[in-house]
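batch job 7 of whatever, protein = Beta-amyloid-like protein
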Amino acid sequence: MWNLKVFFIAIVLSAISVTDIFAYVEAVAGSFGSDVAPIKVEPQVAVVCDLRNPLHPQYMDSTGKWVSDLENKSYCLKDKIEILDFCRKVYRGRNITNIVEAPRSVKIDNWCKLGHRKCKTTQSVKPYRCLGAFQSEALLVPEQCVFDHVHNASRCWSYDEWNATAATACSARDLKLRSFAILLPCGVDLFSGVEFVCCPRAATLDDVSPPKPSPTPDPYLTHYNPKKERDDFLDAEQRLEERHRERVTKIMKDWSELEDRYQDLHSTDAKGAEEFKHKMTNRFQKLVKSMEDEDVMEKRQLSAVHQQRVLAAINEKKRDAMTCYTDALNENPANTHRIQKCLEKLLRALHKDRHHSISHFRHLLNINPSQAQREKDATIQHLNDIERLTNQSLQMLDRFPDIQAKVVPLMKDYLLALRSKDDTPSPLLMTSRTSEEDVLDSFKAEIVAKQAEKERQRQADKARKEDERRRDERKKMESKNKKQNQLDSSAEDTVKDDSSAKLDMTTSTASPKPNKAMGDKMKPKMIKEEIVKKDKMKEKKAKEDLPPYVDAQAVQHMQERPKVAHAQNHQIAHNEAGFSVRHESGHRENRSVYFTLAFAGVALLAAMVVGLVLLKRRHARSPHQQGFIEVDQTVTPEERHVANMQINGYENPTYKYFEAKE
């Protein structure tokens, strides 16, 4: 009996302890769970249309579980508007504006049949994502894959149609569609573009290992700040350039290491070194090409995301401005000032859209004319839509004649001021598709003219540099030829002098002694004629010996070396007394110069004497050159003044009068 009581008490205590342990564990779990951030779940709904076994639609709750909506009596939601309303109903706290079908089917359990409380059915369906404000998805681009996008504002297609478009674009490149995401919405489950990633169908892995991309995508692709979109985009481009530069640096370093390895191998095994070089060259060519393709792909992805976000921001501004304008028109009584402000806001948003479209088209004309030509029709259609919406917004004032009379003239001037910045026609003229096409063609012609001008300038610079190069080469050749000619002239002079010396030596040894009687009979006139004749013959022979390319300037500076008189044995060289006549004439000329200078000196001296005499006489006549005159100090100032005047030759008329009277 005692043992039974003890056993019962032990069971009770153990039960109490187990209960406390479970409570403690739950408390600890609760404390840890309070610190863990809740999982972010994307709003989704799932609908199955089965007429035989109707099922309640389901939605995903905040914990990520599928829950059946038993309150909804409409079991088959085929219309897109109905699915959008269902999203707004089950997610009341969210701003749901659109829906899109998921790319893959999902297996969902616990479907509840209509009119039954038991939920045991399992179905595989493609759920619908409930979208809020537009946010582009960040698609990961694996190695050897390509990112691209297709945007056409004139096409408002469903999810499946854009999926087929992306698959077709990949197939055109002999690639396979890997992933895609829709772009800007233009209606309920309708969109105006798609971005996608294409990969090779059968990836062949060789020894080429391209640079590994960063493990995480760029922050620009995962974070969106509308107020800093432009700055974030420029920062993303800068980061991309830095990563590309780092990859290029790494490749160059690896190539340098392989080059050193090739040099070491070439000293021991030349054939193996050449094979190694050929293999490494092919490897690095593929590596560089892969890196360049990856860089182009990343730049294209950044540009596409930036374009999406800019268009999304513009559409958001247009939507807010249209809401403000319609609310102002629906007020009772209507507020003219508020209507005017809201209409200005709408016109600014529409002008911003038009300005961005034109700027984007111009940008494409500069960097990718073929892409601009492909998007030309879509751009024209988009500009026409903006024009139509602008004129319709002004026509909405027709039901308020008084307000229309006040506001419309102001809005016309406002539109003209906005359009003057772009130099495009006013929308009030109801521009047609042809006029918009003319505007875009004018931009194209302007770009083509600028490119032609740049090409002409480039060709002119190239021709100018070529002319400068040829001119420098010509100057160098002329300088070189001039130096060569001078060297040739010097060599020719040396050879000629040597030949003349040899000729003189031969003449002195071979010629007989002159007859003394003949020498006595020779007259000075004959000697002079013989000398002149000899000089002419030497000059003629020197001219014949000169090469044809010797410059005239070099010939002018050529001087014959004077010959030594005792090296010649004929009388002509020793009879130079005839030249004494020149010395005498020179003495006579010098004597006449001396006489002229002496006569000029005497004349100059006489002139100086005469001048001094005349100057002395003039000074003698001057009255204030006579010295000092004593003046009585007791006289009055008037008398002293009169005395000074008299000294200078003044005579008082009164004195003359009395002197004449006497």
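notes: The mean pLDDT is 72.
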